[in-house]
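Might you be able to review the protein record set out just below?
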Amino acid sequence: RIKDDKKSKTDLIPSHASTKSFGIERLLFGVRKKSPMTNATLFLKAILLTSVATLPIHAFVSRTTFAVKKQQGAWIDRKDSLDSAQQQQQHVSTFLSMSTNNDNNDNGEYDLAVIGAGVVGVQAALLAASAPYHKKVVLIDSASASGALMDADGEDLSIGGPTGLFSKALRDVSKRIKVSTLRGMGLREDSVWNEITSSCVELASSNAQDVYRQLDYAGVEYMAGFASFPDGGATNSLIVKRENTMALATIKAKKVLIATGSSPFRPAGIPFDGSRIFDSDSINTLSYLPKSIVITGSGIIAVEFAKIFRNLGAEVTIIIRDMSPRKALQKIGLDIDVAATLVSDLIRSGIKIERGAQVGEFNVPQTDKGQISIELNAKGGGPRAPGLATEVKCEAYVAAVGRKPNTDNLNLRSAGIEVDEYGGLMVDCHLRATAKAKNVFGAGDVLGRPFLASVGAAQAKTAVISMFGPGLESKTTFKQIQAVSKDGEAVGESDDDSESEGSEEYETPDACPTNDLGGFMDPKSLANNPLAFPVGVWSSPEAAWYGYSKQQAQEQGYEASEGTALYVECLRGRVFNPNGMLKLVYDKPTGLILGVHICGDDACELIHYGMELVKGQRTLQDLLISLYSAVTFHELYRIAAQNCMDEEGARKRRALAGKVVAERLRKRGAN
């Protein structure tokens, strides 16, 4: 509720955001900066902010708090403190209330030290510090090593976020902001970019503050610095170089989790400068909106950034080594039709694709003005065939050609910890590092592929279970969880004289743990298991898949076939966006659903229903008799099942639907 009083406008703006960042909302709503803001206008602004965040409204209403307790007992003020402990408690969600603060720890000894404060490290720290474990946990990270996504005060805005936090925020902003409109209103280029980046910072800041609040509530201690193992082979202690003072501190930990993530691979010969020539992380520091950009890469990150900058009005060129961009996308797991749909959308958007090429020499102007000239060679080097472009020019360049695990500078060799040929931490099925000592574990990108935040979070959970034993989900009822929420006592207590859970050191069993999807979480097991996790591509349109492709199902011995529903075949698709498709892979004799592949609006949300269909061994018949809410994309599942049962009729319906889409696009182009 917004009180109808005479408070200033800035009193109603979240105090962690500058009033400048609200300029874009004023432009979008057509409100002049000097005109008084009515309650209705403020309400619309609140809707705009809350609709793009995954946080409760209170995250925007008050400046949230976090003070991190240093090892020596000093406090680093992250944000303004909450008015009272009671106010803080009101801001904690139901599930956060399961956690209880750990006791003060001034002797530098911990049950768990987590290196890296991305989504994986934060999830592991919160889980270990909360019920039923209640472990003393320290989280060690450096803001300067986490993608350079910081605010003006040097605050780490990427804490607890995935590697692609900046691109996700930029993608959201690019969908809401029409750059051509802002330019048409006479805004300078730097003003346009400032509006865009301030909106990204707003989203990232909200996420960071919520993470800080959760860590504070769980009692996780935070150390800003760089951690490494000491010389001599010990793995129960770490040397931490403080980020600001560079002073060295030694901490002891019974268990260590390495969750340092990954960094972009930088091909030799490219003069990265962080100003005009970027990798997929340093692009976070882009200080202007380029009118033209060249991207090398054919994977998920390259496609995401290509659509983002195209939506922001830039001329975009993608350079790929393959002759077929569709086949390049298939190599990373996309279904053939999903890949074709994505490529068609790239071309339709006006994105140029240079095939069978690689970059050669760069000619970068000495000043910020002027375009970069990039030589194009044939795949493998040498001149390109006659008639093909031998040079491209742009204002910015991004190399998005893969990632590598961050295991440098940890002194792993001294600790006897092994890495693979790509630098990935080698682990067993418990995610325990391959080493003489048995107290070091790893999770997330530091292990290597698939480089997905969702998989990393699941690995964090597996690692904590391997260290300290099964958690709430395996031994308790919801009533017991509620009891822990209320009184903070450990789960598993009984009326007999046995010791309460957690009083003894947990010993990792020989049997391998399984995740909720029924597979092991070590990289080797994940690489051969299409049922282990869903995949989402945050391009525009989105793409997502889970389970088998038709070829994979046939290799497993199924008599596999597939059926497709076009977005235009459902009412919501016809009204909002007809460009998209949903495919079901199924077993012909039984109708068993084996895989789901989607490209279109909300694909990354729709895939989870498809995952449950596969995991639940549902059939086409189940979909045909299911009732779905009207005007939703979920109707596509029923339509696809119907098309599986009537392949001839499906072909005719798709042909007719295709004509409808083509006519709609023709009319749109004419206008």
Summary: Residues 189-218 form the longest helix (30 residues). DSSP finds 22 helices and 23 strands in the chain. The radius of gyration is 26 Å.
